[in-house]
């Protein structure tokens, strides 16, 4: 019984080895060296940098300056040739190919794209062109917007219209309290007798700060 088991195990191992060897031979037989040249169909000129892609395998190659290429593929693979300005072409490596080499001369047909016609017409009259040119509104750029926002008149209008925030209100209240505590027990000074205050009033009058802004 022991000798029978030894023979049985030996037979199974031998069959497995032969099967693996046969599979390796089949895999080696299916490998094909594909090479050839890609040219234009009308003038038979070489097409450099054309793509030679093995579909669904995520690999491929490019043709050289003479349009020649070489790549390893398998029997039954689909090979797609593509290049800008030419229509794509697909070939299939024969399954019953004898040998491990396959050469091809691939001719590419020009792919012409026709764009819709565009008609350029001048303006009817010079007066209409001048009118449209003058009335065209050009949007202000960032520099012009910053210059307008920093104008003195606009800043004064913003100061007069915008309410004081919390920080400014607290600062004004603290200044009032400081002035009150500084002159506690005495008469505070009157700006009507202050020449500097009169100078500021005259300058504000000249600037037009007291004019009505409708």
Question: How would you concisely characterize the structure shown here?
Answer:
The chain has 214 residues and is an alpha+beta fold. It has six helices and seven strands. It is elongated.
Structural class by SSE content: alpha+beta
- Overall 3D geometry? elongated
If you average the pLDDT, what whole number results? Answer: 81
Q: Summarize the main sheet.
A: 4 strands, antiparallel
Would you report the number of β strands? 7
Number of helices: 6
Poorly predicted runs of 5 or more residues: 4-8, 20-27
Task: Walk me through this protein's architecture.
The chain has helices at about 1-30, 125-135, 140-150, 150-160, 165-180, 195-205; strands at about 30-40, 50-55, 60, 70-75, 80, 90, 100-110. The chain is an alpha+beta fold and about 210 residues long. The protein has a 4-stranded antiparallel β-sheet, with no helix packed on it. Strand 2 (about 50-55) and strand 3 (about 60) form a beta hairpin. The longest helix has 29 residues, at about 1-30. It is elongated. Residues about 5-10 and about 20-25 have low confidence and may be disordered.
SSE diagram, text form:
Layout (H helix, E strand, L loop, with lengths): L1 H29 E10 L10 E4 L4 E4 L5 E7 L3 E5 L6 E4 L8 E8 L17 H10 L6 H8 L2 H10 L4 H17 L12 H13 L7
Parallel strand pairs: 1-7
Antiparallel strand pairs: 1-4, 2-3, 2-5, 5-6
